Amino acid sequence: MATIIRGGRLLEARARRAEPADLLITGDTITEIGAPGMPAPSDATVLDARGKLLHPGLINAHTHAHGNLAKGMGDRWTLELLLTAGPWISGGRTLEDKHLSAKIGAVEMVMKGCTASYDLPLEFPAPSAEGLQAVGSAYAAVGMRAVIAPMVADRTFFEAIPGLMDVLTPALQQDVDKLRLAPWKTSVDNMGRALREWKLDRDQVRLGVAPTIPHHCSDDLIRACVALSSEHGVGLHTHVAESKVQAIVGLQRYGKTLTAHLEDLGVLGPRFTVAHGVWLDDDDMRRLGDRGASVAHNPGSNMRLGNGFADMRAMLDRRVNVGLGTDGANCSDNLNLYESMRLASFVSKAQRPDLERWVTTDQVVLAATEGSARALGFEGAIGRLAPGYKADIVFLDLGHPNWIPLNDPTNQLVHTEDGGAVAHVMIGGRMVVQDRRLTTVDVAALAREAEAARERLARLNAPGRELYERLATVVGRFCPGLAHVPYHVARYVGGA
Ligand SMILES: [Zn+2]
Q1: pLDDT tens digits for 395-418?
Q2: In terms of Cα–Cα distance, which of 248, 133, 254 is closest to 191?
Q3: pLDDT in tens, 302-334
Q4: Ligand 1 midpoint to CA 278 (Å)
Q5: Distance (Å) from CA 45 to ligand 1 centroid
Q6: CA of 380 to the centre of ligand 1 (A)
Q7: Which end of the chain is more exposed for a tag (fewer CB within 10 A), N or C?
């Protein structure tokens, strides 16, 4: 039951040190950390970590299981075009496809040093208990932790953007009508059933609730999500002010920012995570910080979709908890938290010349570990290597060129490491990656399954692709037009 890890160098991100230390693990938990050679139970398994840097498993604060089968399908698309592409790139999925898509992502993440993820899967026209179980069981099969928060809405993208329906031809209006989502009560009932009947170990895989984008949800749906979250004690997660179009539409619809609207509906609190927050203003950040809420910062996705740079430094200054994410493989496109850390650091530095306002590498490491852990509702259990915490540990090979030579482990983890040095990954005391190979899932078999699904879905979704191409010419003109309105003018016109 006990394992002693001997000879590794333990990262202390704040102190920028990595001194040799031994770790005793009992069951799934770190029970003691001590000097090299510290005593251990005689029956403890000894794990040799000489030449390895040990850091807490990275935690992905925002991704989408359904995105993995849609990896690489687009190049020049905005968030609005990505939403338009949804029925094409994520349509027609069976329960097996939902499981498979989640598994591809989980495999990629663990192999790149990530041990837990906040995942927002999509099901059309409403989430189902079976679909959520299919996603959750994929994480369990890989041996990774996750919070699975189904994306729900009761307005389509076309209903959510004022004026967009009016610029579609009557034929396109009819096609778009067929994309209508389930009534909000159906989604809420299905999520309630999933929460009551959840079969997986909640320490490993648990549920959350994700009213996906504020203006895609009626106030009734959002209030019902808040009620579910407090009844079951689970997280709430919403894309807020991700694109400028969203920020402007929020002002048009509600006469206030999306964050102010969510505050009115009782959403803001310690269980709430904003995804992105690129277009949050000072007041919004203050509201989030004062209520103990989190932001999942996804710098890669924000650049990829042309949404801009979120201001991590300003968020930290307003006491917002910041976690780090990759977003889905359909918009970022890898699920590599090392890259997210690097981009979070670079984006902060690219935003302004005042270097005292730049985030530091230790702040970035803390966001990708403790910050994300808090967003997932796993605070105090994961995100640190300390007694009482779960044994979720990444072993980096210090013989890899990324670490030759080792000068400052915190700077190098953020700015140099790219996942190439990941040798082993332990989750809950179990080796999920050993010597760069996954121990839980046959990756070659997964690739064969994925290829078969890809071919079948490409045939099935050919009409969806054709519809996307007809819609894209309209959406691709209309939405950037909205985004060209200066934000301060939209605020004035919106009355905020
Ligand atoms: Zn997202």
Answers
A1: 999 999 999 999 999 999 999 999
A2: 133
A3: 999 999 999 999 999 999 999 999 999 999 999
A4: 13
A5: 41
A6: 25
A7: N
3-state secondary structure of 227: helix
Cα 289 to ligand 1 centroid, rounded to whole Å: 21
Residue 156: Cβ-neighbour burial (10 angstroms; 0-12, 13-18, 19+) = buried
- C-alpha 224 to ligand 1 mean position (Å): 21
Round the CA-based radius of gyration of the chain to a whole number and report it.
22
Q: How far is the CA of 170 from the centre of ligand 1 (A)?
A: 31
- CA distances, 353 to each of 309, 346, 350, 358, 359 (Å): 15, 12, 8, 9, 12
Kindly report the pTM of this predicted structure. Answer: 0.97
pLDDT-based confidence at 494, cuts 50/70/90?
low
d(CA 285, ligand 1 centre) in Å: 19
How far the first Cα of the chain sits from its last, in Å, is 59
CB–CB of 453/465 below 8 Å?
A: no
Going from the Cα of 433 to the center of ligand 1, the distance in angstroms, rounded, reads 27
User: What is the Å distance from ligand 1's center to 254 Cα?
Assistant: 22
Q: Is 419 helix (H, G, I), strand (E, B) or coil?
A: coil
Encode pLDDT of 174-231 as tens digits. 999 999 999 999 999 999 999 999 999 999 999 999 999 999 999 999 999 999 999 9
CA of 52 to the centre of ligand 1 (A): 34
